Amino acid sequence: MFSSERGRAWKQKASYPNRMKLIQRLFTILTRTVLRQNGIIGCEADVVMSLTVILERAKEENAEALADISKRAFDSDFEVGAPNKEGGPPGYDSAEFQVKIFMKWLDYYKILLNGRIVGGLMVEKKRPCHYECQRIFVDPDYHNRGIATKAFEAAWKIYPDAKIWTLGTPE
Questions:
Q1: Which of 13, 50, 52, 170 is in Cβ range 3.0-4.6 Å of 89 for a Cys bridge?
Q2: Does 33 share its domain with 110?
Q3: Range 110-125 burial, b when 16+ CB lie within 10 A, else e
Q4: Is residue 96 located within the same domain as residue 21?
C-alpha cells in the first residue's frame, strides 16, 4: 500500500461517528481517573454506577433542607414544560408542612448522595402489599444522574412485601 492509500484508509476508518466514540471513551477514562484520584470512586467503579444513593428516614432537623430542595425541584419543572415558573403540590416549599404532615403521616426518606441530602421520597402504605410513592424529588443540580432510579431501587429493598406500587398525584 502506498502512503497516500494508507492515509485514505485511516480517514475512512476514523469517520465522524468513530471519532466521537473515541472522544467519548477518552472522556470516560479521564473522568474516572480524576474521580479515582479524588477518592470519589474505587478502581472498578463506573462513573454513573459509582453514585452511593441511600434512603434514610427524614428527621425534623432535615425539614428546612428538604423544603428548599423540594421547592427548587418542583419549580424547575417549568424548564421542561410546566405551565408556571413556581408551584408544586401542597406543602412542597414549607418546612413546617414537611414535619407536621409528611413526617407524621408518611414514610419520609431523605435521599443521600455520598452523604449529602439531594432529595426526598415519601411512601404511604395503602393496604397490605400495596404502597404508593406520594412524592419524589431530586435537587435540580443533581438531575439526570440516575439518583431517583437508585432511590426507588433502595425503596424496593425497604418494602420487600410490596406487590403493587402506585404513584400518588396531588388533586
A1: 170
A2: no
A3: bbbbeeebbbbbbbbe
A4: no
